[in-house]
Amino acid sequence: MDDLRERVLISVVRYVSYGVFIIPLFITRTTFFPYIFGKMLVFQALVEIGGLAWLLLAMMSPRYRPSWRNPIVSSVTAFIGVLVISTFVSTSPQASLWSSQERMTGLVALLHFWLWFLTLHACFRSSREWDQFIRFSIVISLVVGLYGLGQKFHLPFVMPNATGERLASTLGNPIYLGIYSMIHVFLSGILALKATSRKGIFFYSALVVFNVAILLLSYSRGVFYVFLLSCVILAIYAVMLRVKKFSWAAVAGSLGIIILLIFGLLWIRSPAASAYLSKTPEAFQRVITRNVVDNDRIALWSVGIRGFLERPLFGWGLENFNLVYYKLTHPTERGAHLQQAWFDRSHNQVIDILSLSGVIGFTAYAAVWVLLMGCLMRHIRKALSVREKLCSAALLVLFGAYFTQNLTVFDSPAPLLLFYFLIAYASALVQQSSIKNDGVRGDLSSTHPLRSRPTRALIMIGSVSLAASLFTVVVWMPLEKSRLGIRALAAAGQNRFTESASLFQSALAGKTYTNQEIRRHLAQSALEGVSRLGGMTQPLSNLFDLATTELEKSIREQPLEIRNHLILAQLYRVKGILAAGQFERGVAVLEMARTVAPFRLDLYYELLEIYKSSGDGSKAEEIQKAIQRLSVSN
What is the pTM of this model? Predict the structure, then answer.
């Protein structure tokens, strides 16, 4: 009976894992942020199912329990543990815990990634199982790439591409697609090296070429240059492996490749090449001629470093870079460029970790990378065949490429799915006993401590109840609220304000992390309704009152999120034209926001508009002078 349960449960984990690889194909058109939000909800639901099956397996047999002595497992777990502590001392714990529909990388999401990592590590140890997963993932990458090409050629059954010439496919962002394709170039190459038949070699080599093409068509500068450098490093290593003894010819050839690459890149960026490049597509010119790092990103990195210096121990908390940005960004850092957007990332994963989790989180994060790379290098040294060394080296270079490209961007859900899969794969590789036995976990008759049927039944009931509760709170409720919010927004856009108000009320009933964004959409739809109609109607006035009430709740829940203050002040200004006392409320809200973001020009401009609308000329003049002082360039 136990053997049957074991086979059923391991099958559940296996098929759930296959389901995770399909997630990049999901687009939820009936929610906010269709390329991110729905994917993560599906991922969390699948991981909760797979994690429950794994916990039951671990309860039945010790061989399904994690190897905590594995340095990769212990370091990843320690890093997640530090993030849990950081969330408790966060400047905005709610944001750190849940994140937003747009990002979906808060602590709850990271705990799900960690659970999937542990599940994979504990349940799959044979190279055959891992190769099957990799094979399935690269087939999915083929579908993702074909979908992107369908967008490029405007096929009617695909969602239109909003990024111009740059492919984004089902991931919604060209950079995410570039990272996703780069990972699958290496994974396809690994399987090509392992293939023993001509058909297999041809198939995987074709997928290498295809994913390279998709990477190039995403026109992601940072990913492109990192990929190029990684290929050179891997090629040089392959040459050195083939040369049994030290060879000056091999060294000279390797240096020649590097020098040729450097001079080629320098020539491409020189004025002499401009005549040739002007004939190429604009998106291609973007990759070749523009800097990988622009001044705005450098300014954001500086803001992130200053944020770390303000809270050096545990940082500001996950998902709170926007608070660092509000407080420490001055208009003169980069003209008005940083002031014209709402940045919630520094566009450098290392600086994000440093500023948001402090020196303790950064140390834990660095330990993951040092141990991961060190374990893989040790595994390469112990490998017996050239093919095995090359496969492991390709994985090592892939991790290096992923880390390096993250110095100009940040982690996002689709690449993170693959990253946590890959570190689980690496943890399986470095366990020498598992590798030698090709995944045989031990004697099937191994005893386990949970022999008591009542104890096992109690744990099973508790686990199922917990999984059901998590599914309701983490997946089902946010999904339903987001769908209602989209319907409410559509109704408001068609001037059906009574229906819109009813739908917004349903979407905001109860406490979920979607409320903050839905409330902002509610307020924006009310403001746009006034602009569209040129005045106020009773249904629109009711929507305005609802928006005002809900945004006041948002400020009480997250007092440091100044976007809520700014939009609420705009509501008060519009209402102030019709009713007394509203202008003063708008001023009070903005003054509160200025204590959080003393240099944010949007707040001053809105204050200026309120004072002008209320007829207070002296105050308007005072604010105008303040704007001029802030706008003076250093």
Answer: 0.91
